[in-house]
Please model this.
Amino acid sequence: MLTSKSCPLRIGRRVALTALTALGLSALVPGAVSQVQAQEVNVYSYRQTFLMEPLFEAFEQESGIKINFLYANKGLLERARAEGMLSPADVFLTSDFGRLIDAKTMGLTQPLSDADIESNLPAQYRDPDGHWFGLTRRARVIFASKDRIDPADVQTYEDLTKPEFKGQICIRSGLHNYNIGLFAAMIASQGSEATEAWLQGVKDNLARRPQGNDRAQVKAIKEGECSLAIGNTYYMGKMLNNPEQVAWAESVNMIFPNQGDRGTHVNVSGMALAKHAPNREQAVAFMRFLLSPKAQAIYASENFEYPVNPAVAPSELLKSWGDYKVEELGLADMAAQRAAASSLVEKLRFNN
Ligand code: FE
Model:
């Protein structure tokens, strides 16, 4: 039996919870609640530790408020639900808007109306009822081999279904949130029939079963396993700044699709205030901080994401990628199609 002393799952400063799902909820230690004290914020984070560390440190320095965080790529909302009123969670951080909507739907959030937050965040990037707030934007783009693909041949998501690209596409799981977001947006703007035909066309052109993360697809292009992939923009920044991955990044062109028509699909990462936040005041201070120009500049420069705060410019690298047309779709309209997108992936046996 795990004790709270030896258990790697307890909430503690800088404790990342990577094994949550493998161990299951029954292994979790509710005793963490007793560790909650004033001048702390407990963060349940779907965003990876290395992405958030610089922001946590900047906030701690500025405010004197300590951040305890729990990272997992699955199961955090379910955990908070199981903990109920005793949940130590103050703030949820997610890597896509879908989980923000889930958190609200599951009744895990509370509404927040805050002039500071609202002045830093355009209305299209927050819940109208104040249950969640966007933090960063990222486009889901096409990576195309410099050696084997003429960018002129791949200017739209639809171009990926051309018969000439048979056996040339690599992609992560169709059920991953980033892909579900993209497919849901396509259903919202193009309809379900067109999206089904498109997704079948992409499947017909796959080089291998969907697997790995976004960067693994670019690696596969570099290694010649495929020539086209779909991924998020910030991974280009990450690869260019990683000595082991820079060659992957340099083997591809990054193409912002559909510039001649509806624009490129953009997703947001975000945050929500937990319904039973024991440190509400400190949590709100942390949320204000994440939208401040200082924190937004850290996201822009260290995470290679586009700020949601219009007062903050993208980093030099992102500027070098140029302006692009973003598909104008309400987050709620996209969210409404997420279940349909998952069903479509299953129906087409996209991952098989
Ligand atoms: Fe990511």
About this structure: Residues 2-136+268-313 form a domain with the D-Maltodextrin-Binding Protein; domain 2 fold (CATH 3.40.190.10). The chain has two domains: 2-136+268-313, 137-265+326-347.
